[in-house]
Amino acid sequence: MTTDNKVLAASFVMIGVFGIVGLFALLMAPEGVFPVKEFFWGQLPGVLNFALGVAAIKYAAQKNDKNFMIIVLGAMTLSMLFIALFIIFLLYILNLNQKYYIITVFIFYFLYLTLQLIYLVKSEKKTLSDNVH
Fold it and tell me: How far apart, in whole angstroms, are the C-alpha atoms of residue 78 and residue 98?
């Protein structure tokens, strides 16, 4: 298993664990003790951003170096706009506590962004012979 696949596997395990814990807490925990709904739904924007970022990296890896950066940075910009609209949509539809939800979204966003950057570094192109002078 390559290093980038190990990063993806660890990320999916982490997403699964957080999702199961959030779902279990949503079903079992009393709502007044801990902001359960905010914890459960706050994971979703980070997970979507991670999935879009990994898909963009995999797609861009097949392109040349100039297009690679344009595709990855463009996808990051578009996913940030999409996630911002998604957060606003969830806040109004699900009637979540704004303070707890935004804090949870930021925590998970930066966690999954870090995993995405680790994946990007570990999955760099293997065509180093083009750069040798």
Answer: 23
